[in-house]
Amino acid sequence: MAAKRFRSDLYYRINVVELTVPPLRERREDIPYLVAAFVREASGRLRKPLLGLTPAAERQLMGRTWEGNIRELRNIIERACILADGGWVTERELKQSTARPLAALPGSAAAAAAAAFTESEDVSLSARERDHIRHVLERSGGNKMAAARMLGLDRRTLYRRLDRYGLGSITRRGGRRSSRA
What is this structure's pTM? Predict the structure, then answer.
């Protein structure tokens, strides 16, 4: 409008709702969920049985500044998935998949992020995933197909995670199976 290449009256007609989405660096808690979705998408497209990122690789992503936001994250994950040899994407593939070194958070924020993601945090992340899966299973009334859809997971992936977290015994009624015959 300032350059007189766009009419101001037209701008105000189409500018009814303005959405402000905070940058990824301000929504770090979304990174693990976005990474899981991007790995799942790349795994299907590449026809590679990828399970996810190693804890060290996740810590590496959490400590990055993310100037390119979600597009940058998606591109890095996709390239890392292409380079992955096994079922897990490691920090080696992440380093190889970036055109420039992974930039750390500036100043004391980098130290705080590094301290926040210690080995005990890896266990906490697993506990959070387990609790989230349990919550979704309860919301779906124990229906594992519905839970898989709600989580955006393939049925087999959900069953693997249920086995990993010992949640395989949750039934349709939301309770646990009886150990009696």
Answer: 0.49
